[in-house]
């Protein structure tokens, strides 16, 4: 029996400045080694923008980016989800406009399940943040309103 390994990691920024050099955590061998243990994983709080290239060999990814405020010094928020390439035909990315989360559906036929499984990777703003999300990220899904249970 095969167990699907999934994870979410708040990485507090995918990119970092080292003097005039900008490095990406996806270029760090140890970081990639840790991520490669998972079939599906989400990187939360990427601080990336649509101009950034977010790529990891062997995975297909989707990302949501916030627009940097006019007075902002850097990007904030951001979610990127990676799915191992051999699993992508069993995954459907659900479309929505909100920048705070990514929904995906795991096909019951592809994975040999009784029901489809819906997964959501979410960035929650700090309680003292001035940024307000576009919609209710807890209760709103591309499928309509659901009663969700969050386990931490």
Strand content: 25-35%
| pLDDT averaged over residues | 81
* Largest pleated sheet: 4 strands, mixed
Number of strands: 11
Q: From N to C, what is the helix and strand string?
A: EEEHEEEEEHEEE
Helical content class: under 10%
Shape: globular
Distance between the termini: 26 Å
Supply the helix-strand structural class. Answer: mainly beta
Radius of gyration: 16 Å
User: Which runs of at least 5 residues are low in confidence (pLDDT < 50)?
Assistant: 147-152
Tally of separate helices: 2
Question: Going across the major beta sheet, what is the strand order?
Answer: 1-4-6-5
List the helices and strands and how they pair.
Blueprint: E1 6-10, E2 15-18, E3 21-24, H1 29-35, E4 40-44, E5 59-64, E6 79-84, E7 91-94, E8 101-106, H2 108-111, E9 117-122, E10 140-141, E11 144-145
Parallel strand pairs: 1-4
Antiparallel strand pairs: 2-3, 4-6, 5-6, 7-8, 8-9, 10-11
Textual characterization of the structure:
The chain is mainly beta and 152 residues long. Helix content is 7%, strand content 33%. It contains two helices and eleven strands; from the N terminus they run βββαβββββαβββ. The strands form four sheets. Strands 1-4-6-5 form a four-stranded mixed β-sheet, with no helix packed on it. A three-stranded antiparallel β-sheet has the order 7-8-9. A two-stranded antiparallel ribbon has the order 2-3. β10 and β11 form a beta hairpin. The chain is globular and about 50 Å long. The two termini are 26 Å apart.
């Amino acid at each position: 029996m095969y167990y699907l390994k999934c994870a979410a990691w708040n990485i507090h920024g995918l990119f970092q400045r080292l003097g005039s050099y900008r490095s990406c955590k996806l270029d760090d061998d140890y970081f990639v080694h840790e991520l490669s243990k998972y079939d599906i994983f989400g990187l939360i709080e990427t601080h990336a923008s649509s101009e950034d290239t977010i790529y990891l060999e062997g995975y297909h990814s989707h990302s949501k980016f916030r627009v940097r405020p006019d007075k902002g010094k850097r990007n904030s928020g951001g979610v990127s989800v990676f799915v191992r390439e051999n699993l992508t035909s069993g995954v459907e990315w659900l479309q929505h406009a909100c920048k705070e989360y990514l929904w995906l559906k795991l096909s019951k036929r592809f994975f040999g399940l009784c029901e489809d499984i819906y997964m959501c990777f979410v960035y929650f703003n700090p309680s003292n943040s001035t940024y307000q999300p576009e919609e209710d990220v807890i209760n709103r899904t591309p499928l309509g309103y659901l009663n969700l249970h969050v386990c931490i």
